[in-house]
Amino acid sequence: MLSSNRSHIRNVTAENNLFIRRAIIAFIGVILLVILLFSNLYQIQIKSHDDYQTRANGNRIKLVPIAPNRGLIFDRNGLILAENRPVHSLELVSEQIKNIKQTVDKIGHLIMLTDDDKKRFFKSVKAHRRYKSIVLKNKLTATQVAKISVNLHALPGVSIEARLKRFYPFGSSLTHVVGYVAKITKKELTRINRNNEEAIYAATRDIGKQGVEKYYQRLLHGTPGHQEVEVNNRGRVIRILSYTPPVHGQDLYLNIDVKLQNKAFKMLAGRRGSVVALDPNNGNVLALVTSPSYDPNLFVHGISSKAYKKLLSRDKPLINRATQGAYPPASTVKPLLALAALEKNIISENSIVYDPGWFKLPNVERKFKDHLAWGHGKVDIYRALEKSCNTYFYDVAYRLGIDNISQFMERFGFGEYTGIDIHEEKSAIMPSRGWKQARYGQPWYIGDTISLGIGQSYWTVTPLQLAKSVAALSVNGQSFSPQLLGASQSENGLIQIPAHPLTPIILKNDDNWRIIHRAMRKVNQSIGGTAYKVFKDADYVSAGKTGTAQVVSLSEDTKYEKDKIKERLRDNAIYIGYAPYEKPEIAISVIIENAGHGGSSAAPIARALFDIHLSKIPRPLHSSIVNAKSPTKTKLSSTL
User: Fold this and answer.
1) What's the pTM?
2) Which residues constitute the domain of residue 217?
3) Does residue 73 share a domain with residue 37?
4) pLDDT tens per residue across span 554-570
5) What is the DSSP track for 351-368?
């Protein structure tokens, strides 16, 4: 019994030692865990503080970009060509509305809502957060704005918002100069990302699509601003932390004179054609008209497919005929052909060619006919240009040859881009031996050269090239890139846009300029001149050249009868000219498709523009800038 009781006696010392060992181990474990905890806290709160602070702010603080106001565009006299007008939209915040469908129905009783408006809105409601504003209807009229505004007290969650959108007050007359803005496409967005310009266009919805709006997009766009806002975990803005205002785009002042532009557009009256007017002393583009045209405002808010299809008509209003239309120059290049022949000593001021009504190559039966069946008899260079004698220039072309013709005409810019400050331009064609071989795989024939003598065959020009060439001719070979932009206005002040001179055209004998000028003056001022009837009563002296370009070739024995030919197969009417004769201030080219004779159809438009410009030569609003650094006008001989 005694030994059994002793076996159940507790060993207190051993138990105490075991407890102490366990307590020490537990304490050490706690200490290690505390050390690990503080180590992690040190890592997070001190060592990696900046990193985690940045991550937290990234979730809490957002930068909201703010689009800048687009710069305005003016003409040379300060008339506004492109402005920003407020456009009102009706917007709803769904979380503030108990019954969205009922609210939409109420609005439908106040203003007209189409099924497309409602369908688009309810689709957006499902895709957007409840606290975000969603557009129900765009482009509210003043009456609609008034009706909604009066009833806003009964429409919680409904608001009218105003945004600035581009507006072009002169509509279709300036479309191909100013261009237009429209929504950024996926293709344009890809280009923006490729050029690392995402920050510039982060808040921008529209971008320049054509004309000056596109070419000077970066100047007009401005610099975006931003506001730093604090948001909650659902993205709702809690408060604004800071605000950096955007810098609006630069205002542009063009060299265009709206009076000239509108007059030319009105006189074309929807006919297919173009008018270009330049200042020959600096290359300023005074007018650049294309007809038919279209209203650029259609594209600003998004054009419907039905409206766009109407623009794809046979008349092609989307094409800028002034810079992209390629036409045979016809007789308007005869002054330059005569100048080339004078330079090569092929003809002189007193050279005579006999015109029996046709021209024949040696040992060839085919006759190249003059426009007068009985001919002009004995013809010198003055009579040849005054009467536009084809036979004289058949002979000139034959004796010059294709190589001399193409090389000389390239000096006046034919077959090349003019350098005008818009992207929409073609180089047209200045043919040569190499060009024909490359294009058609054929050699150059002498018959091709004869046709070049009257501006036909493969030779094509744009109206802008024609105007540029006559401008250079009028001031004895000075040449400039045509320039639309005259000055720009930013927060830093006015920025001068100087003229862009090109390599001048130097002749071996300067007297040859005088001969051509005198001959072109006879076209407008002599009784027998092809444009005399148009300019005979003008109170200034001018010079010019008419042209009538064949659209289709007629057989040798076929007589051209206008009334028996389809309208689109009739001749094009062309005119080039400059005024005043002694000190040119304006040079013009006019091309009207299928309008017949240049003297009766095209020259009157030039006369009207000369009258407007010379009656009181417009002084630009910022003339010291628009004409800055322009070379001094060339003084022609007083004996002209």
Assistant:
1) 0.83
2) 64-251
3) no
4) 555 555 566 667 877 88
5) --EEESSEEE-TT---EE
